[in-house]
Records
---
Amino acid sequence: MPELRKDPVIGRWVIISTERGKRPMDYRPNNFERIAGEICPFCPGNEGLTPPEVLSYRRDGSSPNAPGWDLRVVPNKFPALMIEGGLNRQGEGIFDKMNGVGAHEVIIETPKHDAAFSSLPEKDIENILWSFHDRVLDLKKDRRFKYILIFKNHGALAGATIDHPHSQLIALPIVPKQVREEIDGCKTYFSFKERCIYCDIIKQESDSGIRVIAENPSFLAISPYASRFPFETWILPKNHEAYFESSQKHEYENLARMMKDILVRMDLALGNPPYNLIIQTSPFHELVSDFYHWHIEIMPKLTNVAGFEWGTAFYINPTLPEEAAKFMRDIVA
Amino acid sequence: MPELRKDPVIGRWVIISTERGKRPMDYRPNNFERIAGEICPFCPGNEGLTPPEVLSYRRDGSSPNAPGWDLRVVPNKFPALMIEGGLNRQGEGIFDKMNGVGAHEVIIETPKHDAAFSSLPEKDIENILWSFHDRVLDLKKDRRFKYILIFKNHGALAGATIDHPHSQLIALPIVPKQVREEIDGCKTYFSFKERCIYCDIIKQESDSGIRVIAENPSFLAISPYASRFPFETWILPKNHEAYFESSQKHEYENLARMMKDILVRMDLALGNPPYNLIIQTSPFHELVSDFYHWHIEIMPKLTNVAGFEWGTAFYINPTLPEEAAKFMRDIVA
């Protein structure tokens, strides 16, 4: 059973995921090599290589866990957290831990092994967004879970271990410290201004235009003012909404269009960079609707995070956000 | 002039370092290649390729900025922050910024280009520690600075751009958010227990022994209970002290011995991994002596930080700290 352990000084929880079973020898350099010709567990025909699906979108009357799907969601075969059991919070002297309970699922985004997310038709991307929506609604019913992070690692340097296009979600029994800080920041601003801080950011960015990359009827894409990374990009819904899963149909359509637009621009601007994409949404069962505002963050992996950043969580970004935005804005697809 | 910009939601400052001058085209994949046969600016005889030294340890009566040194400290030629000027705090609509004022220096640890830090004699490592001490005392006199981070990036994957052994320091006009949170955590514990939390951790770890890697008269090296990364290692002074620069001579001797011991073990255990090493010490001019406890954190770079971590600052560590500690403890040098 994986464990959640808390750093006693800073209060940060970590997942100690023994199920992933990395032994010391696994880290030696020559164990990093990929096995060529390995069978892809995410390709049609290999459904038996994944745990049974929890959701699939199928064109015809094909059977679960067999070919005929456009999209499948399966539990991660090597989950960071385990779906069964109680939290069993306990101390260990000065330290605190609980069982590593949670859901860890993989969204297999397309049957096509070699398709890049950015090359998928908008309709397929919209379906991926609907699968996120459907899984969040389902997992929200489990009262043990307090937060879901949906994320996508594209490329080995960004942490992807399987090439076949996929994203992941992790449902957690606690609200991560960084998410809590973000919510608290929004709450403080709201108590001062009685407005959502993200709505104010959207207004200012839209008016000035200098950090705007693209805009459509429902979404604004910007280089954030205090970008941690070069070409960090946020996609913000223009309509105030705290929960990703509460978006309307036309919003998912416009989001699919915007995601494809941004990722195509990024590919052109930076030569198909590896990237991490995350959806920042509200914790479950908390009253945050007035002041939190869900959004997407995309972080191309262009620089190595080094000692200074680990030591301080203080990032050095060598590219002006305004310059990154202009470059992305002016790129012709 | 570089800028410090504040994320308006979470309150995190970032350095937008235009002096480093990364243009969008610099990130395209083929621009990552190293220039072979490039002249090393840190080698003896090439002193003219660095800014003039601010400190050097020399054997004979050799002149500054000429060969004959054992160790040199120079300003970074491409500094993330600029040493001159005032902070000039100002708003930009909803956003906040100030001038990127600070010191960014490079400690050239040895004249030998090919020496690994872990292969240096203990006496040389001790001298490196003394150079940290001397620079901190000097920079502390500048009342604009509130915090210094000393760090070492070893290997390209850990962010090093020059092979010649070196470490760096950055003096900042603000206390980074993560450091502030650590100090606050220590303060809260102290107000509850009237004891230093790190002293209590040292006591518990030393008694149980399961996460101890090595111990000498002045230092304890452990795998921390809630390690973020596999083989993360902390070196803690056994004697309570808030400031790195207030250590005694025998402590620097024992620290040099411990650092070499740990890095040799890490090289043997993990095949010369890239790593980041940071010294966590107290902010200047704050009354934290009772409850803060300086220490060193070493993070070998074995896994890629991915979307989940960026989205939540919630780390997944696939190796049990107890297993990492045992492996490091049992390695025979």
---
Amino acid sequence: MSAEPRRIRLDLAYDGTGFAGWQLQPGVRTVQGDLEAALSRLQGERPVRIRGAGRTDAGVHARAQVADCEIETELDDDDIGYALRRILPVDLRPCRVRTVSKDFHARNSARSKTYAYHLDVSAAGDPFRARYALHQPRPLDRDALEEALNRLPGRRDWSGFVGTLNGLRNTVRELTAVSVSTPSDSELVLRFTADGFLYHMVRNLVGTLLEVGLGRREPDHVLHVLARRDRTLGGPTAAPHGLFLESVLYDEDLCGGADDRE
Amino acid sequence: MSAEPRRIRLDLAYDGTGFAGWQLQPGVRTVQGDLEAALSRLQGERPVRIRGAGRTDAGVHARAQVADCEIETELDDDDIGYALRRILPVDLRPCRVRTVSKDFHARNSARSKTYAYHLDVSAAGDPFRARYALHQPRPLDRDALEEALNRLPGRRDWSGFVGTLNGLRNTVRELTAVSVSTPSDSELVLRFTADGFLYHMVRNLVGTLLEVGLGRREPDHVLHVLARRDRTLGGPTAAPHGLFLESVLYDEDLCGGADDRE
């Protein structure tokens, strides 16, 4: 019953409502904690350490998070997925499991990530989206919001939109794509693709874009915040429950994070 | 500050997860209970009694439930809606409030109702639909399921699909329309429109249709259950969380229950 250790990649979807975020913390339910406990059952309770592409915050959701770990089990990839789906609760779903190169690293190998922020712009609020979208019933100037959004892409220092700067760190990232979509009259979705994101970066950007959409700031204000590198100039951090990690793309692995979802 | 009493119609959406159903019961949270408490605040805490078009069961959702009540308030219809949305939690949303004829009765005036049953047919299960669709990962024979579904419409005695028959009651209803739709590869929605529904009728029909879809029964089995009027011949009662009251239509009132919803 001995098996060679191998590295597997897990593509995951989860409803962040019931988790204190991705990262393992004692005494609270985390995505990493649930996954490691489930995976360790597949190799005789020996501990497993997983690495995630992005450490989503408490309340933030994922449609296609990617994680990897080393595991020793006789089970093939499909059976690992099947077993994990049986063990894990309905709010944390492994969508796909595959054996990858020993060099694969969910975070370091990632070429880009896309986050989507969902707004419910209906007057009454949709009770079925209350956990998955920020309710924003006040009229938004979508042109102004989009104008501000389109100012953002580029390789920049994002200090002005970072939550906390504890310790030295590189705050330069390349935001490669942004978009606004309206799946229905009551939904507005803002998407951000970058080679990496900083702590609270998307939620701080959204909070400031909403200030623009509500007419409290001019579209150029986002550039002002960037130039001044002063977080206090931006809008409030948007609530976590509107945010989704939508996909993670890899160079080596042509099967990107989101290809087999829908 | 005195106002003439008037009758109002409320169009409501709610996530049934947190409710022990529509009907008022002591000691538990119900839709009727929450609404009556909120409405009574609008007329100086004098009690309000509301009537719902359909008494949805524990865990069943509504996209466009209709209720009515008499109320004495200086507030106009829009302001009542606004006030209720401020008072009520995010899982119970009044979408529209309008003054109606004294003769309007949410249940008795209803011409037809439509219920939708949502299935998540993906292998892994979508964590964002776990509260709103029954996960059914085993392959379904959609042709057989649809064949059985299409046998159902008509004016019939539905005793074979009724949960309990406590006391004498008329078990004849006219099922006027049924349909299957697949909004995406992973979603299957069954719709039923009738002049009225009996206790657990839709969920019992769905449970039996799934037996057909899973190949355990022939499509004609639904007619056998109807002819024998024997509930024990049908499949299990499908779980409540896949069921939505989608719309209620009225003759007198041309503004049907679902017209202003998405």
---
Amino acid sequence: MAERRVLYRGKILSLVLEDGRWEIVEHKDAVAVLAVEDGRVLMVEQYRPAIRRTTLELPAGLIEPGESPLEAARRELMEEAGFDAELKALFSFYSSPGFTDERITLFEATRLTPKKRSPDPGEELRVRWIPVEKVIQDFLSGALVTSSPTAAGLLWLYRTR
Amino acid sequence: MAERRVLYRGKILSLVLEDGRWEIVEHKDAVAVLAVEDGRVLMVEQYRPAIRRTTLELPAGLIEPGESPLEAARRELMEEAGFDAELKALFSFYSSPGFTDERITLFEATRLTPKKRSPDPGEELRVRWIPVEKVIQDFLSGALVTSSPTAAGLLWLYRTR
């Protein structure tokens, strides 16, 4: 059995050293939501301190203790964009299994219903509806600064066009 | 200007706290390589301590200091799978910009030429050629345990079929 030593225990992640050798970041799992209406993709624009850049991403967030991935997707879609919807899981992957256990599940949202938005107090983000063709083009040209679930979601859309 | 305090400086990552609030993992950028021959995808099977599971992924690795992404992709393809090839960058994304600056670029490899494999001493992996249809099916069913660049690469293939 591998020996894991916790070097840091934080709010959203912990750093552990396994067998004195593997640097591992334990992180909550995450969800992202792909919603398309009238040929436009629902996205959020926000400043990301980790990369010191503003990104354009699918609505996404961490799965809180006690939540299912589906519940987290529903909550994030409400908090970040102000919609309820029918949600269906598309697929999952590990964001970067060489160093972190974070697993991301992408959901597809249909039948969006506007609700009152309830953003996290610490989050500053802007809801943007971007034409599918444009955002795929920006992704493939390198102009889009974005996340792995967004890349996967856009490629999923690309497939059907 | 944000104040960043280094909590841990390691071999493949550093943990920093920005403005006493944002837990950020500074990590080398990475590359992955998508190669298809005779309807099969080149993949590597390996045990990943961070997730305590064996994954099936596209050949991938970190960009070492002084290397371009293209050079890293060429080296990883050689080290992990024993091939030289023509390489073309497809697209890039941040693996998980909520907490890490790691950016991954996916390359497409064509005209593969077998060379002598030169794996890292610390790496134990097995080269596998998996039929495209099967690996996409396994990904969409949830049977495939894999990484974000592999997910993106498979969706890229899916698009053309």
---
Amino acid sequence: MRSDLNNLRGKLRTEMPVTRHMGIRVVRQQGGGVLLRAPLAANVNHKGTAFAGSLNATATLAGWCTVWLLLREHNIDGHCVIQDSSVRYARPVCSDFEARVEAPAEDVLTRFFHSIRRRGRGRIELSVTVADRRGVAVHFRGRYVVGTDPGVARDT
Amino acid sequence: MRSDLNNLRGKLRTEMPVTRHMGIRVVRQQGGGVLLRAPLAANVNHKGTAFAGSLNATATLAGWCTVWLLLREHNIDGHCVIQDSSVRYARPVCSDFEARVEAPAEDVLTRFFHSIRRRGRGRIELSVTVADRRGVAVHFRGRYVVGTDPGVARDT
């Protein structure tokens, strides 16, 4: 699990340059989700608070990282894209911030992996909150689609 | 109008560093909206397509820039934040991309400015599309809230 996390960190650093510019760090996995952290300074807007686009990007990435790690843990060679998302910015983010993915329910995960193994394709909706030092400020939901690469062993 | 555009460009460059890292440029106003452009290279993901978070950030910013310019044109000293948004990523973005704001309907604009002048606060929903060289790939809707700063002259 630790090496999956390190592989993920390396992937972001080398293959997604914008995450480096935003200072986004994969902190740890917790409860089935992922925790990302980013500094205010690199993502600040003209009001001295965090740019909404950076908050959304961090939440989007947190969901994607969670799916990426889930696939590795289940030994599935698949790719993941986000299909759609919605977000509510409840108040400005005034300090460094964290994006935290809520752990998907067990039956959601079961259906997700069953679909991938049966049909080579699965979809999962993830909830992400973004918090600064005062607490949760942003509520995000994103739907992620996974497709397995050709030649992957399946159980069908 | 040209000087408003240049002021906006300067504001992004100096006060929102992440827009510089993403290479986002304010190209021009058109039909009541704003056109932004960004390079794939600065926003690329591990698949060689544009990171969804960058696409969302560019669309979010395009809406915000549109409201910022509308306020200047109407001589309103107000600040604008995004309240919520939703986005659908219809397909991957495979080249440099543009975010284009649809011009709001005339009656929508009338209600928006009326509310700001009467109550010091207004809300407007904007549609933004993001396109690469093959056409539109992302559909975004965002609601932006404007509040006037204390001491601003109003017509009430």
